[in-house]
Design brief:
alpha/beta, 2 domains, five-stranded mixed sheet, 6 helices, about 50% helix
Length: about 130
């Protein structure tokens, strides 16, 4: 092959690879540029990484200045929710003896508990 043909093939290969990368990043990838725009801001990318229940728990705890909390048995049995509640709400701690207990909206709440706030996914109670 001549040198010109080899050069044309290399250019064509580079163009095809570039188009393929563009296609992967824009059409098939779940990468979101909103996360990339402000990577150092507080809560950056939270809505993409966590479930709405976990995000809601943090806003409720912050709004009501709760220092420790507990979760219902249904939340504790769900390993994903239990771990995320614990990690995302730090430094607010999970404490078994806490009087503040989270319940999912569709859960039955014991009679001795008083509902403090009901949101879209969670209820914070005082027991």
């Amino acid at each position: 092959m001549s040198l010109k043909k080899v050069k044309k093939i290399k250019i064509l290969f580079i163009i095809i690879c570039s188009l393929q990368l563009f296609y992967l990043f824009h059409s098939r990838s779940v990468f979101n540029y909103e996360i990339f725009k402000s990577p150092f801001s507080e809560k950056s990318g939270v809505v993409y990484a966590l479930s709405p229940e976990v995000i809601e728990s943090n806003s409720i705890l912050t709004k009501h200045n709760v220092s420790d909390f507990n979760m219902s048995e249904k939340i504790k049995k769900n390993n994903y929710l239990y771990q995320r509640f614990t990690e995302f709400n730090y430094p607010i701690r999970v404490k078994e003896s806490s009087k503040f207990i989270f319940f999912l909206v569709n859960e039955d709440i014991p009679n001795e508990c008083i509902i403090i706030v009901t949101e879209k996914y969670l209820q914070l109670t005082e027991c």
